[in-house]
Amino acid sequence: MTPEGAAKAIAKYAEPDPNSGCWLWSGSIDTCGYGRAYDGDRSSAHRAAWLARYGEIPKGLLVMHKCDTRACCNPDHLQLGTQKDNMADCAAKGRIGGAAKARANAMWCNRGHALISDNVFIRPDGSRACRTCKRARKKRNRQKNRINASGAKT
Fold first, then answer.
1. Whole-number Cα distances in Å, 10 to 7, 14, 32, 40, 82
2. What phi, psi does 141 have (nearest 5°)?
3. What's the pLDDT tens digit per position in 45-81?
4. Which of 14, 98, 118, 130 has the highest CB neighbour count under 10 A?
5. Bridging pattern class, strands 36-39 and 41-44
């Protein structure tokens, strides 16, 4: 995403909230609640906001929310930090393990399949995943590879 494209996206989709000072993203929102900005490239709205205001994000750094509002794209509510900084911020604010804990205790996957014993497998990182979704993903990939191997356009 270019700084110009990021600025256009922010101008189009950021809606100021008078109570919090956040600029709430009114465009596409991902499953975790973060805004998604598009300008040929896909980016998080808060990263686009940083890019539009301050320029490139240095390699190895994240754009973190000071306000803890995932859909916020107000550059004044953002700061740069490392993954370690982000985790320390989560712990300091009592948010550590919230989403991960919820996923660990989830009864259904994101597509609505029951996460019961015969439909769950454990990934190498220890997280649980839906066996039905994995089968569907493998089937789609096999079909795509078959089409690619035959020389047809995808």
1. 5, 5, 19, 15, 24
2. -65, -40
3. 999 999 999 999 999 999 999 998 889 999 999 999 9
4. 14
5. antiparallel
